Structures are given as structure tokens and as C-alpha cells.
Amino acid sequence: MKILVVDDEVLGRERLLRLLRKLQPDAQCLEAESGEEALALAGQHAPDLLLLDIRMPGMDGIDVAAHLDTLERPPAVIFCTAYDQYALEALQHQAVAYLLKPVREQELSRALANAGRVNRLQLASLRPDSSETGQSRSQVSSQTHRGLETMAIADIRFFLAEQKYVTACSPTAQLLIPDTLKDLEREFDQQFLRVHRNALVALEHIVRLQRDDSGAWQVVLDGVEERPAVSRRHLAQVKQRLVERC
To answer: What CA–CA distance (Å, rounded) separates 206 from 118?
Structure first.
């Protein structure tokens, strides 16, 4: 296994290399101090995995990951950073893990295990293009600091868009996913219904429509307390779909 450690700080690279020698003694480890050097080494040595810092002078880790995405066989990526505000953007590159510095041995060990089981090409297969396959996914997936997490479509009661990101909500969990609400609506148009510009709800889990104290319409869904709002723009369509369901 070839592992490329990318960090502009010498101490950061040395710490990760020490952990790797302990956790992966047979791995061939390379190191780079910049994004530009990382891409050059990746082109020369085709590493299986990058341990990639995000905030670096010049080309940062997100830019490196974006370039790696264009490769025919992109390596797995574990982001290692002192800043948690980049986690959501990192999700777009389907990283195996997002670890905060100082990286702990147990967390790195778990991330390395995930990297061994799920490479970038396998991750891509978890999110097939429904227009190519003719079928929608049976689950949505996301990369978090715990590794690859999934949620079955059958369990999801609604998708809620907030700012640039979408949360899938079930009776027992919530999962931030790197999909857009528009793409989800197109892929799951037979299963989920747009009730608001920021919400899709699962048709089969709708119990009823009701008004709140202010007179605004809401969707009551089985298994969850949250009641997504129904906009006036979508109300007629929602009622029609419910009639058709009956």
C-alpha cells in the first residue's frame, strides 16, 4: 500500500508518519509539503491513499482532492486538519474520513480500515447516476468523521435543505448528505414529494396535512415529531398527490 502524507507543517507530517509506521508497518509512505508537490507525487507514484491537510499555502487540500477526482483511478483521501469548518465541503469529494488534529491513533486506525474496505471507485458506485441505471438508489451515503455512513431510503421521512446542504431525516437519525434537493427530487420523484422549496417528504409516510396555530399548512409524518411546512405554492400539488395516493 502506498500512502502519501501531505502537510505544509513538518511536525504534522512527522506525527502522521510515526502513526503510520505503527499502524501500517508494511506501507510505502511518501510525503509532500504542498498541494502542488502532492499532485506531482501522485502522478508519479499513484498512491492508494492520501492523508491530506486542508489549509496550506498555495493549493489547499480541497483543490488537491478536486484534481484527484479527475483521475481514472483516484486514490482514497483522509483529510487531516485542525479546522472543522471544512467538513461539509470535504464531503463533496467523498473522503474516507475527516480527522481533526492532533490526529488520534484510534481514529486513524479506524479511518485506515475504512480506506482498505472502501476505495474511491467503490464509493462512487454507491451513488450511481439514476439516469444511466434507470433505477434510484436504495440508500444515501455520506462521509463523516466516523467514516462512511448510510441511510436507507425506506427509512427516510423527509429531506430538508438548509443553506447549501441537505439533511436526510429518519425516526432514529439524521444524516448530512452531499446531494442537492433538486437531484433528489428528480431521482426519487415517485417516492418523495416536494412540499416546500427546502423540503421533500416521503409519500408513503404522510399521515395527514394540518394547519398550525398561525394557519400555515404542515405535513404530519409517521415516526417523527418534525412537521415540514407546506408552502402555498406547493399546496395544491401536494393535495392532488395525496388524493391520487388514496
So the answer is: 35
Predicted pLDDT at 164: 72
Alpha-carbon separation of residue 241 from 65, 160, 170, 194, 202 (angstroms): 42, 20, 22, 10, 12
Do residues 45 and 30 make contact, with C-beta atoms less than 8 angstroms apart? yes
CB atoms < 10 A from the CB of 25, how many? 7
**Block means of pLDDT (10 residues each) for the chain, length 246 residues?**
95 96 95 95 93 91 84 84 62 68 90 63 42 64 71 95 88 90 91 96 95 94 96 93 79
User: What's the confidence (pLDDT) of residue 147?
Assistant: 62
Antiparallel, parallel or unpaired: β 199-202 and 158-162: antiparallel
Distances, alpha carbon 134 to alpha carbons 51, 63, 122, 124, 188, in Å: 36, 32, 19, 16, 11
- Which pLDDT value is given to residue 120? 41
Distance separating alpha carbons of residues 119 and 165, to the nearest angstrom: 24
CB atoms within 10 A of CB 123: 18
Domains within the chain, CATH numbers bracketed: 2-123 (3.40.50.2300), 141-245 (2.40.50.1020)
Angstrom distance (rounded) from CA 125 to CA 229: 34
pTM of the model: 0.51
What are the angstrom distances between the C-alpha of 199 and each of 60, 79, 152, 231? 33, 30, 18, 10
